[in-house]
Design brief:
The protein folds into two domains: 1-133; 141-287, Histidine kinase-like ATPase, C-terminal domain (Heat Shock Protein 90, 2-Layer Sandwich). Residues 242-247 have low confidence and may be disordered. Helix 3 (101-133) packs across helix 6 (255-265) and helix 5 runs antiparallel to helix 6. By secondary structure, it is of the alpha+beta class. It has helices at 2-29, 34-96, 101-133, 145-157, 180-196, 255-265, and strands spanning 141-144, 166-170, 175-178, 204-211, 214-220, 269-274, 280-287. The relative contact order is 0.10. It is elongated.
Length: 289
């Protein structure tokens, strides 16, 4: 890819040099038409440079998308392989050894947790595709958001080593009009994202409360935070900071994309703020019903 671009830019420079040279020759041979020659040459040069700029920008965007897709494939492979290997090991151990019933049950429970991880990954991939294809209809109804938050927290706690890391402050009885499945994905992705990017010993605080005519969901972690220049990009599909082969945290780059698309469909807003002294706060505002 790099070599064809070098040749292309060389040809552009050559074309501009030829344009200037022929312009000089024409002005010398027809001095009475110099104004017209210079004007037309300038317009042509501007159009050529603008076209090259747009092409250069499009190539860079395509290259960035290609890198993100490669990172996505690498991350999905890792996300699939890890729980599958774990499930395989648990089941092989149960089949090959005479284990006490309590031990077998523990292995089966852990296998079920890994299957739920795989299910979440598949759900994210499916809904991201449907949203992008505009084939997901977002069936809405009146739902108890407080109850939904409690259900999502209960499910996530089963996968967290230290359940006390999650510190909820949920006002009861807050209702909204929305898609329960899609909003559960929003909650799951935001909470798991906060846990993933926070040190294991640091808490993640979740608040749900009334804010006038809106419900406010606030999730605060104490991780490294998000640089200002990255805050707008994190909601792009596949976008993740760094290289997938060297990045320590897992993920597919779909979670926050889904969050933003779902909230936009609900007429809700999401804001990314800095936590103090460190970390990130995601603040969601959605109309109450």
């Amino acid at each position: 890819m790099r070599r064809p671009l070098i040749i292309f830019y060389f040809l552009v420079v050559y074309a501009l040099a030829e344009l200037i040279w022929w312009g000089i020759l024409l002005v010398k041979s027809q001095p009475e038409r110099s104004t017209m020659i210079i004007g037309e040459g300038t317009v042509f040069a501007i159009l050529l440079i603008y076209g090259v700029y747009r092409l250069h920008k499009a190539i860079n965007e395509e290259a960035a998308l290609h890198r993100q897709q490669n990172n996505f494939l690498l991350s999905v492979t890792h996300e699939l392989k890890s729980p599958l290997s774990s499930i395989k090991l648990y089941l092989q151990t149960i089949l090959r050894h005479e284990l006490p019933a309590e031990k077998q049950r523990a292995f089966l429970v852990n296998s079920l947790k890994d299957i739920e991880r795989l299910d979440d990954l598949v759900e994210n991939m499916l809904i991201a595709t449907k949203i992008e294809n505009k084939s997901y209809t977002f069936p809405k109804e009146k739902i108890d958001l407080s109850l939904l938050v409690d259900e999502v927290l209960q499910r996530i706690r089963q996968h967290v080593v230290r359940a006390e890391r999650l510190q909820p402050a949920v006002t009861k009885g807050i209702t909204v009009y929305g898609d329960q499945f899609a909003l559960s994905l929003v909650l799951s992705n935001l909470i798991e994202n906060a846990l993933k990017y926070s040190p294991a010993e640091k808490p993640v605080v979740l608040e749900l409360k009334e804010a006038g005519q809106k419900a406010m969901l606030r999730i605060a972690d104490q991780g490294q935070g998000i640089p200002e220049r990255e805050k707008e990009k994190i909601f792009d599909k596949f976008y993740r900071v760094g290289n997938e082969e060297t990045r320590a945290t897992k993920g597919t780059g779909l979670g926050l994309f889904i969050v933003k698309q779902v909230l936009d469909n609900h007429g809700a807003s999401i804001h990314v703020k800095d936590n103090r002294p460190s970390g990130t706060v995601f603040e969601v505002l959605i109309d109450r019903k």
